[in-house]
C-alpha cells in the first residue's frame, strides 16, 4: 500500500491523454466514413433520378405511339372482323413459311457430312463415335420438330380463339340488325295499313256523297245507283268532274236533305251489337261490385250464401284481391289477351328494348295505382252500401281532367267546371243520407274515405294509361296483362305477411267460409274477364268515346242492381246524389266524345277503331 501511495501523479494524466487521442482518432474515422457514405448516396440518388427521367420519357414516348396506333386504327376502319381475319391468315402463312425454311436449313446443317480430313481420321477406331454423333443428330432433329409442332399448335389455337371472338361479335351485330329490321317492318306495315284505311274511307265518303247529290238532281230515290256512262255532253273532263264533286259537297253541307239518308242495315246492326256489348260490360262490372259487397258484408245473393264470408279490413281486402288475380292473370295472359290481340307477348318482350326500357316505369306505375284503387274500393264496399261507394268512386273523371290539364295542356271547358261542381254536390247528397241515417253495418268514415281514395288513385291510373299510350304505343291487351301481373305481385307479399298475427294486414277466414271465399274469388275473376272482353269487342264497333259514355252509367246501374239482387236500398237524398253524379259523368263523357269526334259527311261508314 505504501508503494502505491507513493506513485507519481503523472501516470494518471498520461492515461487520460491517450484515451482522448484515441477518441479523437475514432471520431475522425467515423466522420470520414459518414462523408464517404453521404457522397455515395448522393451519387446513387443522381443516378436514380437520371434513370427515372429516362424511364418517364420512354413511357411518354410509348403512350404517344399507342395513341397514334389507336387513331390510325380508328381512321383505317378498326372493328372490321373480315379484314382482321385476312391479316391473321396472312401472318400465319408468313410465320409458317419462315419456320419451314429455318427448319430445313437447320436439318441440312445437321445432316451434312463431316469434312474429308475428319472422315479419314475416324475410319476404324472411331466408328462407334460416328454412330453416336448420328444418334445425337437424330435426337436433336426430333426435339426441334417437337418444339416446332408445339409452337405451331399454340399459334393456331390463338388464331382460332381470335377468329371465334370475331365471329361472335359479328353474329351479335347481325342479330341487332335483324331485330331493327323487324321493328322497321312492323312500323311500316302499321303505317301503310292506316293510310290504306284512311284513303278507302275518304274515297267511299266522297263517292257516296256524289251519288246522293246526283240522284237528288235527277229526281231518283236516294240510294239508286247512277249510270256513270249516261252523262250530259261536256261533263266528261276531269276538271268538270272535280267541280261537280265540290259543288255536291257544298250543297250537302249547306242544305238540309229533303229525304233522310238511311244507314246501311249491316252497319246499323254492327252499331247496335256494339252498343249492347258495351252495356253488358258495364252491367257485369256493376255486378262484380255487388259480389264484393256480398262477400264483405251480411248480404244474401241468389241464395248462394247468406251472411258475410269475410269481415271488412285491410288484410281481408288484400286476400280477396290476391285470390282474384290468381285466376285473372293466367287466364288473361295465356287465353284472352292472345285472342283479342295475337301479338300480345311480342309487344311485352319488346319493352325490354333499350329505346323502350326507360318508359316501362309508366306501365308499372299504372299497375301500382290500379292496385291501390282496388284495395281502397274493397275496404269501402265492406263498410258502406254499394251505390254510395261507387258514386263516391266516380269523382275520378274531374280529377283526371285536372291532371290532364296539368300534364298534357288539355284545358277543360266551362261545362266541365259546372259538371265538377255538380258531381261534388251529388256526392255530398249521397254522403248526407248516410250521415243522417247512420251506417249500422260498417265504419262510415272509413268507407267514405277509402271510396274517395279509390277514385283519386284510379285517376292516377288513367293518366298513366294515357301517358303510356303516347310514349309506348302499347295495345290495351298487353297493357292489361302487365297491370294485372303487377297487382298479383304486389298482393302476394301482403297476403304472406297477413298470415301471421298482430299486424295491420292480418286476414282471418273461418274454416267453414273457405268454400264461399273461393267461389266468390272465381266469380270476381270471371266477371273481370267477361267485362273486359265485352268492352274490347264493343269498342271497334261503336268507338272508344261512346263506349266511355256507356261506362259512365256505372253509379246508377250499380245502385239499381244492388236494390234488385241484394235488397240494398238507398234514401231519397242518396238516390238524388246518385242520379246527379251519373248524369254529369255522362255529360263529361259526351263532351269528351264531341271533342274527339271529327266532322263527318252524310251517311259515313262506321270507324273501325282498335281497342
Automatic annotation (TrEMBL):
Chain segments carrying region Disordered: 216-246
Keyword terms, alphabetized: Coiled coil, Membrane, Transmembrane, Transmembrane helix
Ion transport among keywords: no
EamA domain segment(s): 446-589
Coiled coil region boundaries: 16-72
Record-annotated membrane-spanning stretches: 270-296, 316-340, 360-381, 387-407, 414-432, 444-464, 476-496, 516-534, 546-566, 572-590
Keyword Zinc annotated: no
Protein family per UniProt: Belongs to the EamA transporter family.
Protein name according to UniProt: DMT family transporter
Organism: Phormidium pseudopriestleyi FRX01
